[in-house]
């Protein structure tokens, strides 16, 4: 698919792009537009398709870190960040369905655990219902030594020399 980059100061002609600022990208098949806020962060995407306009909007905190996405097809996604900007919780809503995940990090800021929060009988989300989906461990050099059921070993030069997978 070939894309055309259009830069101008005129507002976009496509009604889905009415609030877009100077940048539009369009292909022969489906025109898309991208809008940016005053900080230069992507604030909105729109794609004209056969079944109408698909739109995605982005929210940021005061430190310009992504905290939310609103998507006309996939629904809402909210992110909670820790002090270093890592995602520690994610909540997704699409219609009446809700999903949530928690993310855990070690002292070296490596992602160590991902847990899914399973809705209770009434459909409520509670961290008491968190189930570990994936976990990982790292050595002092920051190399992965454990991911899920796999174990990794390295030689003195830091090259991977062995991977063991535990059978269930």
Folded structure, characterized:
The protein has 168 residues and is mostly beta strands. The chain has strands at 3-7, 23-27, 31-36, 42-49, 52-60, 66-71, 75-81, 87-94, 97-105, 111-117, 130-138, 144-147, 150-154, 160-165. The chain starts with a strand and ends with a strand.
In short:
The protein is mainly β and 168 residues long. The protein has strands at residues 3-7, 23-27, 31-36, 42-49, 52-60, 66-71, 75-81, 87-94, 97-105, 111-117, 130-138, 144-147, 150-154, 160-165.
- N-to-C SSE string, H for helix and E for strand: EEEEEEEEEEEEEE
Q: Quote the average pLDDT.
A: 83
Helix content: under 10%
Shape: extended
The tally of beta strands, per DSSP, is: 14
Task: Give the strand order of the largest sheet, numbering strands 1, 2, ... along the chain.
Answer: 1-2-3-4-5-6-7-8-9-10-11-12-13-14
Tell me the β content. over 45%
Helix/strand/pairing class, anyone?
mainly beta
C-alpha end-to-end distance: 45 Å
Brief descriptors of the model:
RHS_repeat, extended, 14-stranded antiparallel β-sheet, RHS repeat protein, 0% helix
Please render the helix and strand layout as text:
Blueprint: E1 3-7, E2 23-27, E3 31-36, E4 42-49, E5 52-60, E6 66-71, E7 75-81, E8 87-94, E9 97-105, E10 111-117, E11 130-138, E12 144-147, E13 150-154, E14 160-165
Antiparallel strand pairs: 1-2, 2-3, 3-4, 4-5, 5-6, 6-7, 7-8, 8-9, 9-10, 10-11, 11-12, 12-13, 13-14
């Amino acid at each position: 698919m070939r894309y055309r980059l259009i830069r101008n100061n005129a507002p976009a002609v496509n009604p889905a792009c009415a609030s877009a600022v100077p940048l539009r990208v369009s292909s022969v098949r489906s025109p898309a537009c991208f809008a940016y806020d005053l900080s230069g962060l992507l604030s909105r995407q729109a794609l004209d398709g056969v079944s109408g306009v698909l739109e995605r909007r982005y929210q940021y905190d005061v430190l310009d870190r992504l905290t939310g996405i609103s998507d006309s097809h996939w629904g809402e996604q909210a992110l909670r960040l820790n002090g270093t900007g890592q995602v520690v919780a994610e909540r997704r809503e699409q219609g009446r369905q809700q999903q949530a995940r928690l993310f855990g990090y070690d002292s070296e800021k490596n992602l160590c655990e991902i847990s899914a929060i399973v809705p209770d009988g009434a459909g409520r989300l509670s961290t008491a219902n968190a189930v570990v989906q994936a976990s990982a461990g790292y050595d002092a050099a920051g190399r992965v030594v454990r991911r899920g059921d796999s174990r990794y070993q390295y030689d003195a030069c830091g090259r991977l020399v062995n991977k063991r997978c535990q059978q269930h």
